[in-house]
DNA sequence: GCCGTCAAGTCTACAGCGTAGATTTTAAGC
DNA sequence: GCTTAAAATCTACGCTGTAGACTTGACGGC
């Protein structure tokens, strides 16, 4: 019988860590993360399920390994001479490419990725770009958190809308059609006056808003509501800008 | 034996949809979403696992029901007179309260929530606030997407860091200590010049940047890199602002 | 009052999951 | 040459979601 037992000849091992992770990524990219079971992965490798455990301690380790494999593809063009806005754009684009290449892995990219050295390098680029604004460290960290949170939120939306191929706003528009227009007047008005050719995968528009805000505050804007026509005068803002978690309504 | 069979007396039903969802939420809040199995839920209700299926078609329906239950708690103060920035803040705060009250449900709040009528009402508030900036519909949708994506990214970070109680930047700082400072010079410099008392749960600072950017563009800023000292002069920006998905590096 | 239909709950069972433990064979180290 | 350890397999356990059959009692129509 073709039943194989015992340790294989040298160099004839059936499995290596690299192959396991590559195959796992293939399954995830092709059929989603829920299709990636240890048994399925083993079948794909033509091997007993338990064989994998000689190379990786458990399923979580496989997923972490796959995530690090993907993050290792992250390559940033270190253009130290460019304006900081372009550097942030470059950071965002690199992350965007990763997410669009592996949308089914998005959740793990966001959660597991934090521990990856490749991500540290990427953050070095982001922080260096933001440091060139001249803002104090505290503001830089806040701005970086803002950029990262936005990109993660956008990435998650991409990952979730993989099936429906709709952006968040697009899904809202569809849902809206089930109700009479007067029920949600603003939404109805705005979406009826909107062109058809929006592309939800874009990240530029959001970043444009975001970088404008960072630039404003870096220039000396106080982040309050003061610099808006018809807004509050400087000093009478009642939105806490440096508060310590006071979010109550009262 | 205490073995119960058959249809119960009128009014003596052991289960109602409402109780099932409330108990499921209790499990999720207390022990995380992975603890919420149908068997566990049934045990908590003192009932056979299959009994649940007479009230909800499957586990996914339970989770959707729980999500809608939580979203139904979302109540926005409709202060139509306030400046639009404060209205956006109010929207963000309401969402924040929801997330902090049920961090273990974050992923479902983001993904399943889209179909909930309560979320439509919340979006009506957000869009109405942004419409008061005077921006054209296309910009309003972009700004709303930005706000929603940021809040979702922030919420996901809260959900993921529930165990470690660390913010994204805080986790970065910890990871950074494993390497010599000269390896990631900018990160090292910034984090060493940073106070200890950062509170990662805050959303105000990010929103301050974000609203500043929206206000700038609403005032007539073009969203390019032009309005930054030392940046590009107006018109020579090579960052696409109205592009159609052209994200290539070349 | 009676009877068919349906609803609520139980019980059994199945396929799939992650993985612990024992077993077999062979490569590598002393 | 002997010992140790590694690679792969096999079996088995407890867990999961849920399909299907069964029991009992409520309810509507006659």
What does this 3D model show about the protein?
- The structure is a homodimer of 250-residue chains.
- The first copy, chain A, is mostly helical and 250 residues long.
- Among the domains of chain A are: 55 residues, Arc Repressor Mutant, subunit A, CATH 1.10.10; 97 residues.
- Helix content of chain A is 52%, strand content 0%.
- Chain A contains ten helices and no strands.
- In chain A, helix 4 packs parallel to helix 7 and helix 7 packs antiparallel against helix 10.
- The C terminus of chain A is likely disordered.
- Chains A and B meet through helix 4, helix 5, helix 6, helix 7 and helix 8 of A and helix 4, helix 5, helix 6, helix 7 and helix 8 of B.
- Chain A binds a DNA duplex (30 and 30 nucleotides) through loops.
